[in-house]
TrEMBL record:
Protein name: Uncharacterized protein
Source organism (scientific name): Ceratitis capitata
Organism domain of life: Eukaryota
Transmembrane stretches, start-end: 6-28
Sorted UniProt keywords: Membrane, Transmembrane, Transmembrane helix
Keyword field contains Membrane: yes
Amino acid sequence: MKTRNVYLWMFVFSVVSFINCISSNGIIEGLINSFSSIAEDDECDQPDLCDEMQIMLHLACIRITSPERILLLLTWDSLPAACDKTASVLGHINDTLTDCTPPQTNNLYMRLYKALVFFQGQMCTMAETKSKHMEKYRSCISELRDDLIDCEGPADWFEKRSKTYVCRQFTEIINCDYIRAALLCGLKPARMLRSFAAEVINKALVSKCLVSSTLPHVHNPMSDVGSRVPNNVIVCIYIFLLACMLQYFM
Ligand SMILES: *[C@@H]1O[C@H](CO)[C@@H](O)[C@H](O)[C@H]1NC(C)=O
């Protein structure tokens, strides 16, 4: 008797749960749908590609339209001001890049962005980088603005396919920067500027160029700004002696 009761109950239970399943199909469907939509949100929906125009516009705020233009930041009246502006532009670009898929690394604006991050790391942080030594010559380097603009390559040279062409322009630019800096500021700051220019510009190129160790010859370079002080002292002594002599003859 008892076992038969158990079987009966089991039968009733399975019928009830079967009916329950059919009638609650909607709920199950709903469950399946919500699971699949979670899956879609989490895995299948890639965030959109970042708008490269946004990056371009931020870079344009500090007039960075080519790799060489990054160097012009060195010629701002005040380096801290140039660094502040750079940090704010990089901050905006970092924000732009957070909720979307960044453009590929060979995208022009991403390359300019990387080169700018490098510039900031070298010139604007507390770290004692080798480019930081240029700070000593900044009052002279900041006079080089027009020269650096003269040295810029032809339009879009950095976007051309021929590596030979790109690297020829690259070498011409850094050598031109070197000569102009040597004439105005001296050979030592000129060497620093050339190698910094090479590093910054190379960061923005798809394929890096070799930096030739042969420096162009410069006629009558300016003596280094750093050594001007002793020169001034000598000039003062001359004037002093001259004054003494004049006094003696009068
Ligand atoms: C922006 O991001 C770069 C690299 O991820 C970082 O080096 C830089 O400090 C950031 N700058 C700002 C201002 O957030």
